[in-house]
Inverse folding.
């Protein structure tokens, strides 16, 4: 049950961060064109994106992170001291692979902010944060990794 809760919370955390970063990137592109965007418009846009992307991006991110965390857990069983790094990298890679695979399979980028390497990396960062959350909630944080290192 602890692992399931850690997974669900990390998916939501990664999704929220990824979506906020997408919104912020899109808003900044509009500002760069010379338009003024008020704080109220920014917050409305972020809330709209969080709600409207729930049906598409949230399930895709959940599947990507599930695969990433499962693969990481298999590797971590061999080397428990790498749990922190393993889950953080798994989150990063899972989200990046999600976008690259969608581009390869569909021939288009589903999220405009991910078209460039910076946008793709920023989405990967959201996945890394999800991996960090998963590690903290499942394993228990830095003290758990220190005890795992001392037992190896």
């Amino acid at each position: 049950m602890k692992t399931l809760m850690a997974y669900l919370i990390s998916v939501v955390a990664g999704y929220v961060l990824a979506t906020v970063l997408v919104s912020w990137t899109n808003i900044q592109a509009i500002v760069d064109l010379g338009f003024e965007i008020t704080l109220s418009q920014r917050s409305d846009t972020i809330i709209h994106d969080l709600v409207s992307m729930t049906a598409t991006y949230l399930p895709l991110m959940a599947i990507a992170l599930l695969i990433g965390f499962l693969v990481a857990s298999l590797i971590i069983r061999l080397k428990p001291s790498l749990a922190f790094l393993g889950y953080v990298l798994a989150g990063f890679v899972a989200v990046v692979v999600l976008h690259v695979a969608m581009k390869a399979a569909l021939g288009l980028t589903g999220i405009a902010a991910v078209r460039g390497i910076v946008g793709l990396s920023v989405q990967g960062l959201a996945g890394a944060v999800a991996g960090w959350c998963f590690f903290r909630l499942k394993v228990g944080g830095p003290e758990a990794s220190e005890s795992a290192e001392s037992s190896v």
